[in-house]
């Protein structure tokens, strides 16, 4: 299996497109940091200081806590936000500015949508390209079971996603340090009973790992489509379409019970820590179960199709 994965990894990086995606990712992240710095340098000073902003955050959190429709996760989130705002105002603990290394690292998980996009391209084509290039016969004539071949391709796709996620995290940290430097402020967390100072690196890493759930599921979906239909263009097109439209459908379906079992209701696991939950009464455990079921369905379809496919023609 390790040799199969190594072979697939070498094949992946022998393509110019893979290197182009890596360079493009770095260029986009560099441009994002540069544009943010330019906006900061050309924009007028904010009209409100951080204390006024924290008072607004406190009032907003207290208003949300009065809402009877919020779920348990949102209840915990807004209780924490209110406690943190009160602590900052009482102890003169300034938050990080947006234009700082710390805040850019904390917000870096939002850029992982780029990793999802590139993973879709790789996952959709890693099997389909074998058919389009006519190399599938040579691949399957080797004395290796089909399920091992497909597994090596899937693992290679996920390793690609992991590598690009690490590259994104490191690039954001580096470019933020170059453009903004280390800012003043304190990162505070609510542990359920008191406000304490935490590590923004650990928080950023946690949010990034949770964001990879979307990359994992959409990448797996693209992998399945590429395996079933043998068309990378179809798999890429459908996956990217759902990547952008799927979340919007959550809002259209939120009045119906079926939305709780809809894939894109659960792909963003950061919602349990950011307070933005379109469907308030779901839980982390439920999301993990739903994602696991979808994953198993996608993989069963992929393996069954690949193992039964006739490639003699």
TrEMBL record:
PANTHER family in UniProt: INTEGRAL MEMBRANE PROTEIN-RELATED, MEMBRANE PROTEIN
Organism: Planococcus citreus
Cited Pfam families: ABC2_membrane_2
Protein's name in the database: ABC-2 type transport system permease protein
Record keywords, A-Z: Membrane, Transmembrane, Transmembrane helix
Cellular component per GO, a single term: plasma membrane
Protein origin, superkingdom: Bacteria
Molecular-function GO term, any one: ABC-type transporter activity
Residue stretches spanning the membrane: 110-133, 154-180, 200-226, 233-253, 282-306
